[in-house]
Design a protein that fits this description.
Elements lengths: L6 H4 L11 H7 L3 H16 L6 H13 L3 H13 L6 H13 L5 H13 L6 H13 L3 H13 L6 H13 L3 H13 L6 H13 L3 H6 L1 H6 L6 H13 L3 H10 L9
Length: 265
């Protein structure tokens, strides 16, 4: 894909004899109708030996990502590299982000693209790994999300609270509760302060194990850090107590809920 230059592109004779107007491309790429005629313009520019500038590649790839045409954006990135411009980290991040956000993307597609980026010399940043972790969590592959978190650390990048929370969500959904405990503890040891979403993810893990009282005990430290329980927090505890048949404790939780949050799901 990225590492293989298109033979058609290489043999097109697109050598520097002029530059395709950046302004024209920029205008065309801001609506779908304009994007549809861009291939015709590019074909004619090649026939006229008009070379595509790096900024023009950027405009086209950004436009393709906006309309979720990731495969075309990836192919164009390959042409860009073959044309001697080198890897563009921002474009790689954009394509990866778009790929991870697309509903029909497979894990194989994400990992192949990520590996090819790395071969081209691009080192994924924290935000890139965050997108990959989020993708695995969203697709129900919690352990793959955890593997991505570990790879991130191997690359010398310290995961932030968001990355840990996404990883925690993923492994809790898979029922890997022991690993969830370890991940939460690891975050604390590293000096990271959990956010409300992190606490909710951990309370969810405890409730799924019928350790609802331990989940209630977490509310104190949460509030000490300035995080007030949310509707989601109370819902987790209520569902947990109902699940284990402790309806009286569920009622106590209801009474403790601030009136401003009494629009429970």
């Amino acid at each position: 894909m990225l590492l293989t230059c298109s033979s058609e592109y290489q043999s097109s004779g697109a050598f520097p004899r002029g530059n395709l107007s950046i302004l024209v491309l920029d205008i065309l790429c801001w609506n779908r109708e304009g994007i549809r005629i861009v291939p015709q313009i590019l074909l004619k520019s090649q026939m006229m030996n008009i070379r595509l500038e790096e900024s023009s590649f950027c405009i086209l790839i950004e436009a393709l990502c906006r309309i979720r045409k990731v495969n075309y954006a990836t192919k164009l990135l390959g042409f860009m590299v073959c044309d001697g411009y080198g890897i563009n980290g921002s474009l790689c991040s954009l394509i990866l982000s778009t790929l991870c956000a697309r509903r029909d993307t497979t894990g194989v597609e994400v990992m192949v693209f990520l590996e090819e980026m790395r071969k081209l010399g691009f080192l994924p940043r924290r935000v890139d790994w965050g997108n990959v972790i989020k993708f695995w969590t969203k697709t129900g592959k919690g352990m793959d999300a955890l593997d991505a978190l570990e790879q991130m650390k191997m690359d010398g990048i310290k995961p932030d609270v968001v990355c840990y929370t996404l990883g925690l969500d993923g492994i809790v959904a898979e029922g890997k509760f022991k690993r969830a405990d370890q991940l939460f503890d690891e975050m604390l040891v590293l000096g990271l302060v959990p956010g409300i979403h992190t606490y909710n993810a951990y309370i969810n893990a405890l409730c799924k194990q019928n350790k609802v009282e331990e989940g209630v005990a977490i509310l104190g430290p949460m509030e000490e850090l300035g995080y007030r329980p949310t509707v989601a927090t109370y819902n987790l505890l209520l569902h947990g107590f109902c699940k284990v048949g402790k309806l009286s404790r569920a009622m106590e939780i209801v009474k403790a809920i601030p009136s401003s949050l009494l629009h429970l799901d």
